[in-house]
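Response to reviewer comment R2.3. The reviewers asked that we include at least one raw input/output pair. We reproduce the pair for GlsB/YeaQ/YmgE family stress response membrane protein here without editing.
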Amino acid sequence: MLDNIADFTAWPILTGILIGYIANHIMSGEGKGCCMNLIIGIAGSYAGTLISHLLNIELFGKGYLTNFVFCVVGAVGVLWMWKKLFD
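Raw output as returned:
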């Protein structure tokens, strides 16, 4: 049972850090650290899901790569809005 819990919590954290890292490098060319990448990755995942719903694209069952691309696009959008509002 603990193996399933570890898989359930480890993959979202690792993918969130990776999504934030990729989005930071797309937007600014530099990293912001693991914690900030995780926050950006999580926010980008929600934003990517929202974008897919607005475009009427069903992500369930489309594969990991499609979900990952939408999450990165969402994270780039979050970073773009952050820069417009606070920079």
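Helices lie at 2-27, 34-54, 64-86. The chain has a mean pLDDT of 80. Further pairs are available on request from the corresponding author.
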